[in-house]
Amino acid sequence: MGAHTALKERQLVINHVNNGNSLREIIEIFQRSHSIDQHIVERYRKGTRLTGNVRKNIKKFTAGERRWILRQIRNNRKLRARKLAAEIKRIIYVNKLILSSSKSTEEKLFSRRSGQIEVLH
Fold it and tell me: Is residue 51 one of the residues assigned to a domain?
């Protein structure tokens, strides 16, 4: 993968496009491959941003969740990442259901036994 185009260069390309310059004229100005400038213009016209994609809503684990994950790996070294990820998703889903329900706090309690979650009613 080649070097990335600087943000200022991408903005200059878009300014030339908005001023009515053709792609061929822009290529002569910047003296580089036409595919680079063509890709910049396509991304601009599709409505995507000039800058790179920003990751949104990165899920971070709490300290307790990290300890639980490490304990699961330590207890079972042959545990596969896919199975662990599925278990984590299930736990997060159950916790959301428990917290979003309108039941009393006693009914929201849950216990973790041998890596399994049981909702106590």
Answer: no
Residue 55 in any domain: the answer is: no
pTM > 0.90: yes or no: no
Tell me how crowded residue 32 is: count the other CB atoms within 10 A of its CB.
12
Q: Which domain holds residue 78?
A: 63-119
pLDDT digits (tens, 9 = 90+) for 39-85: 888 888 887 666 666 667 767 778 888 888 889 889 988 888 888 88
101 Cβ contact list (under 8 Å, min separation 6) = 107, 108
| DSSP track, the chain | --PPPPHHHHHHHHHHHHTT--HHHHHHHHTS-HHHHHHHHHHHHHT--SSPPPP-S-----HHHHHHHHHHHHH-TT--HHHHHHHHHHHHHHHHHHHHS-S-HHHH-EEEETTEEEE--
What is the count of structural domains for the chain? 2
